[in-house]
Amino acid sequence: MENKILGLHHITAIAGDAQRNYDFYTKTLGFRLVKKTVNFDDPQTYHFYFGNEEGTPGTILTFFPWANVRPGKNGAGMATEIGYSVPQGSLDFWKARFEKLDVRHDIISERFGEKHLAFQDPDGLWLNLIEAKHQDNRKGWNTAEINADVAIKGFHTVTLTLIDIKATAAILTEVFGYKQIEQDGNLYRYQTDAVENAALVDLLEMPQAQRGLNAGGTNHHVAFRVKNDEVLMKIREKIVARGLQITEKINRDYFFSLYFREPGGVLFEIATDNPGFATDETLENLGSSLQLPDQYEPMRDQIEKGLPEIK
Description:
Radius of gyration: 18 Å
Structural class: alpha+beta
Largest sheet: 8 strands, mixed
CATH superfamily: 2,3-Dihydroxybiphenyl 1,2-Dioxygenase, domain 1
Number of strands: 16
Number of helices: 5
Shape: globular
CATH topology: 2,3-Dihydroxybiphenyl 1,2-Dioxygenase, domain 1
Helix content: 10-25%
Distance between the termini: 45 Å
Strand content: 35-45%
């Protein structure tokens, strides 16, 4: 078995109001709430997982919504933009939808030969809808207002802002198996050939950039995908060999994880495909009820009373 990174697994960000976060991602953008659980380290806070029908790796954006969180600030050592793949010709639909719903957005532009539409969620998180150059056959989650012709398919890329890209690029190329494929000024694009989609990482080099503040409206970490636990631990050996600090294997119920901070300051996670999101709910019922890690199940009544109701 090849010990390969299979592109992006998920990205985790910080939000404010839980209901507002839920409404924006399920109603405005049309994602499925794949899992409603709690923060492992703070069970009085939700952990939402938004993605496609099955919560396929490479489609999953997760949030910790803290009601009174202070606004964060993008800067060096952070993932500063999330790029999603959308069908060709769909950006006009999304631009009109954002205008109708008062979503903050830019004009439709072009980067690396792909049309894109940048926008912000209610907490200020920057996202980008991109008409990918390659054929993306993934199926988005459809709603009454968002059909298959325009539905968001999953991750296309993630942008990391760095003071100097060299050490981060070395992790991508020498450990993760990515290759630099394009450059546009101070923006460098890297790709893995291990998967067709969610295969890109963009490195933005800004030597004068200030460090960011990780709080509301910013990304907490970027998770890369591996097939299973065996590959996970092989990758861990490679990280340790480079002298970087990395956690032991952690059970996140729906995947197993390792965490380490890459040399540019971005928190990276490596996450497995197994066991997936249908372990405690059926596919049809994903995200329909609050799921708790085993250690918090005896506290369910107390936890449920402390969490805001989501309608």
